[in-house]
Amino acid sequence: MRTWFLCKVKYAKETEQGLLKNVSEQYLVDAVSFTEAEARIYDMLGSVIRGDFQVTNISKSNLVDVFFYEDIDIWHKCKITYIVADGDSGKEKKVTQFMIVTAHDVKEAYERIFESLNNMLVSFRVTEVTESPIIEVFPYEKEEELNPTIPENLKPLREVQAELREYEEKDE
Asked: What is the pTM of this model?
């Protein structure tokens, strides 16, 4: 299960008139600890924000899932409720979860959350949809995705060089 951290970042942003204005923005980072969340936010924003910036707050988020649609980057927070039966006692229990989805407006966010959750086995209700102040979401990227595996038909250079040396030694 993912752990999402909400990171607040403060920096001087250039306005359309060319003036600098101090802003505080929120970013969502998938990380295993507060330390990793801070390191990742500095790494991700270091090349994007010109000048100095400061991470002023990091907190664990109550979000359980993130649904990204590429046509827009406005995030909406959705409150989802559903009923589950307790396995031991058999009593019904109301579960509330929060998720975010990108959408142009609240109505589209409502529709997209239904579309994203249509495979749930229990019936659910979307009880609240609000526009979120989150600017961007940074999901976890596996090392393999960042450094793809070497195809089988290629060898590391040091192996090729060693084979070449062996071949040259045989010819002498």
From this structure: 0.74
